[in-house]
Write a structure and sequence with these properties.
disordered N terminus; disordered C terminus; 6-stranded parallel β-sheet; 5-stranded mixed beta barrel; alpha/beta; 389 residues; globular; single chain; Rossmann fold
Length: 389
């Protein structure tokens, strides 16, 4: 049985389908990635069924039972809270691939056999490889893919936004976009984005922030919002539990759609985080795409050490990208920071500096494409007195 067909109602008597009460779906512990699917179950009484055979696709919502607790002992719920997991729990997660050098590499399986929880945000997948310090991934028994009158419930169908439906923003001028890239997972990209958002918003600018690639989780968007972003979006808002293994065309379209949706709020500045490191497949293809370069006005590069910062800056500049500063984990060490400053032609700023007036230096104060009120606000921010942080 395939997973992309329309189904008649009721489901009784159809092969591989078992009717399921809506209340059971609502009672299950829902993951962050499935928050929009759970909203569907709360708003629509169904009917729903569980498909017990077939080939899942990325984004398909599955009701699963926890069989054995491993690395992930908690599940991030729709609000971002980490809910404790117990053997026997029924959970709502989504199939999706994962690329995480510090944790798991995982792919969507070819069937509905036993699988693993490979991310706390709610990804079901089969592990391909894992970091030596990781425990075995938590084991799940899929009970069935959730099906309604339109077929298998997929996150793209539940999401509030779609790449195809993204509007073309109309503005009197160009809104500056800052991209934050890094050497690898856990190089300090999210902290850097939060610090930039904080610095610009404290200077009186309206800042929108987005994460365009990665693994679905509520932590990073939460940091952006807490730092003062007027609006926050990421790929999960467009129905992707993860962006690993997506074709480049989809990644490029998703990146532009996130930025275009953020522009609808009329911000002064947009800040975008690109996950993982420059050698990761999707990131490498994105930064090499001229369309990405035409979208970005400034780049801040997050690195864990001086050598990575130098190599990353050289790579990005060879692609024509405007690297304006280096930040990231290396700035936690004064010695590493000084080492980097001795070999870089751009400033090296830590979170405290980016959260102050230095952030305004990342934004072109005057652009021939910028609207006059926006240019004035940015110029005023770059000339502001230092803010105590």
């Amino acid at each position: 049985m395939t997973t992309d067909f329309a189904l008649p109602v009721p489901f009784d008597g159809l092969p591989d389908l078992t009717p399921v009460e809506t209340a059971r779906l609502v009672r299950a512990k829902a993951a962050y990635t499935t928050r929009f699917a759970r909203r569907l179950f709360l708003e629509s009484a169904g009917p729903y069924a569980l498909q017990t055979a077939g080939t899942p696709r990325s984004g398909d919502v599955v009701l699963a039972r926890v069989v054995e607790i491993g690395q992930h002992q908690r599940l991030e719920d729709p609000s971002g809270r980490r809910a404790a997991l117990f053997v026997g729990d029924e959970i709502l997660v989504a199939y999706g691939a994962r690329y995480a050098p510090d944790q798991f590499e995982a792919e969507v399986p070819a069937d509905l056999g036993p699988t693993r929880l490979v991310a706390a945000g709610g990804l079901a997948a089969n592990v391909v490889s894992q970091h030596a310090e990781m425990l075995e991934a938590t084991t799940l028994e899929p009970i069935g893919l959730v099906v309604d009158h339109a077929g298998v419930v997929n996150l793209r169908r539940c999401a509030p936004y779609s790449v195809a439906g993204a509007p073309t923003p109309r503005h009197p001028g160009r809104v500056p976009t800052i991209a934050v890239l890094g050497t690898s997972m856990n190089s300090g990209k999210t902290t850097t984005v939060g610090s930039i958002v904080r610095g610009l918003s404290r200077a009186g600018l309206t800042v929108a922030a987005g994460k365009v690639t990665g693994t679905g989780a509520g932590g990073d968007p939460g940091v952006f919002a807490d730092s003062g972003a007027s609006r926050v979006l990421d790929f999960t808002d467009f129905g992707h539990p993860s962006t690993y293994l997506l074709p480049h065309g989809e990644i490029a379209g998703l990146t532009r759609a996130i930025r275009d949706e953020l522009l609808l709020g009329s911000p002064d500045v947009v800040v975008l985080e690109v996950a993982d490191g420059l050698f990761q497949r999707e990131t490498a293809q994105l930064v090499a795409d001229p369309a990405f370069g035409s979208m970005v006005d400034a780049v801040v590069f997050a690195a864990g050490e001086a050598l990575g910062a130098v190599a990353g800056l050289e790579r990005l500049r060879s692609l024509g990208l405007p690297v304006m500063a280096v930040s990231g984990l290396l700035t936690a060490s004064p010695l590493a920071t000084e080492e980097a400053r001795g070999h870089l032609p751009v400033p090296v700023w830590g979170p405290e500096e980016l959260a102050g007036p230095k952030a305004a230096a990342l934004v072109p104060p005057v652009s021939p494409l910028a609207s006059r009120p926006q240019s004035a606000r940015i110029h005023a921010a770059s000339s502001a007195e230092p803010v105590a942080v």
